[in-house]
Design a protein that fits this description.
The complex is a heterodimer. Chain A is α/β, with parallel strands linked by helices. Helix content of chain A is about 30%, strand content about 30%. In chain A, a hairpin with a 3-residue loop joins strand 1 and strand 2. In chain A, helix 3 packs across helix 4, helix 4 crosses helix 5 and helix 8 crosses helix 9. The termini of chain A are far apart. Chain B is about 75% helix and about 0% strand. Chain B has eleven helices and no strands. In chain B, helix 1 packs across helix 7. The radius of gyration of chain B is 19 Å and the shape is globular. The chains are: A alpha/beta, B mainly alpha. Chains A and B meet through helix 2 and helix 3 of A and helix 1 and helix 6 of B.
Chain lengths: ~300, ~260
Amino acid sequence: MQIDLEHVNKIYRGGVHAVTDLNLVIPNGMFGLLGPNGAGKTTLMRILAGILRPTSGTIQVGEYDGTTERGRTAIKRVLGYLPQDLGVYPDLSAREFLDYVGILKGMDDRKSRLRRVEELLELVSLSDVATRKLKTFSGGMKRRVGIAQALLNDPQLLIVDEPTAGLDPEERIRFRNLLSDLGGDRIVLLSTHIVEDIAQTCRRLAIMNKGRILFQGSIEELIKEARGKVWMVTTSGPKPEGDLTVVSTMNMGATVQYRVVGELNNTSGAQPTEPGLEDSYVWLMREKRAPMASIAL
Amino acid sequence: MNIWKILWGVLRYEFLMQIRRPALWLAFLIFALLDSRGLIGQIDFYKSVSSIHFSTLQWAAFLAVMANWLVPLGVGILIADRLPRDRRTRVEEVLNSLPGALKTRVLGKYLGTLLASLVPSFSLYMVNIVIATWQLNDPGIIPAALLCYVLIILPGMCFIAAFSLALPVVMWVPLYQFLFFGYWFWGNILAPGYGLPTLSGTILTPIGSAIAAGLFGIPTYGGQGPSSVMYGTSSLVALLGIAALVLVALYQFLKFEQARQ
């Protein structure tokens, strides 16, 4: 399966352009969608999930046309969707909620549906609290219910929007690994502004800002673009100067070590270093900004 | 994908969620106290008026209308938050990404919440019927009462449930509940001859007095209006027909709202 988006635009009432002339190809496997808050990622996810309709453009998900009602319904049959802000019915138990979602996903056979619910409760470690009402669940537990509901129908297209928000570090790692496992034979579209989540799971990604795609390709290609632009500067004096962004600051006692991305005014005492995904993302965001808007520290 | 199984599933869970609400049971407990006292008083009154001679079926119809004085208030108010709740709890986002059709969801929600809301009121009704059976010493009232429940009470309940599900989609829920409360007394309890224009005594009265008058020949509210079978049947058909139209309009509105998002 592959997703093809061509010239997709989404203009909300009031004339807000959330997505502008978006062209994107999403192949099988894990695919990351990275961008700052307000970049248009959630709008794109919601368009792909059939919740929003694009103002214009074409959307092809495998053999289905995502711009028609029939196509959207067909896509929903192979879709698992975890929204950024997952809501649950507070008076249902986790088991009941998953069963309800399973019914609406068209899982007609009661026995196999309930078996699948139990499997997923086990997978997200909620079997012990399966009969507890959801209003008693913590944010992280609700998130896990959300993950389980998205996986109920063994979806060919899994869209997860900020899935690790609200999870503790251990849960985050577990969930990332789960997504990686799932990404082997389907499309898993992971939208986040947490660079680490993408770095650990995706080989390919797209970066969005202000409703536009700034980059699409592999992580290696993105890193290649930032090569030679990332420096480690160790100094006991003032902060390094130039058209640059400080990515990290580490106080070493007598000296301070800065990791910077950009052009240094003075490279003495600065060591070029291999960029990571976060550096490359920062570099790209700087490059695609208007020159006057660049952050100079 | 079997649409009937989805409908049944939605109905079942909406029923469960509604019937578990403590407010539902609390409301009907209060109605039970108010209703039963009034009911016993009314039976005593009618028994003491020698000019009125009710048959078993007429007693049952009379009891159905009596039971319907306040109970629909509870049903309407408690159904009003069901659709806005999906938005408030943000479940709507997940539901909209599922292939189960919107119309199936709307219908399932309507039937599930309506049936659940009717459980305590039906229990209350049956308690009243048992009391009346004992007071009137007529066991035939029980089957007659079941028939009257279907013909007199249910159409009005379907009518108000449809409005209570639909209107809060475009209106703040507490405002709807307040207006509904006012409507109930204005359009059902206020006597037609009181001087104010009212829907009381017309075929659009969900309290069921028009159906009871037309089909069972018991006196209409305020003693006004015709009481032909046609009159009762028109009321029954109008209430059910309007309920269906409101549901269709609700579905179309939600579909339109989804499309323009």
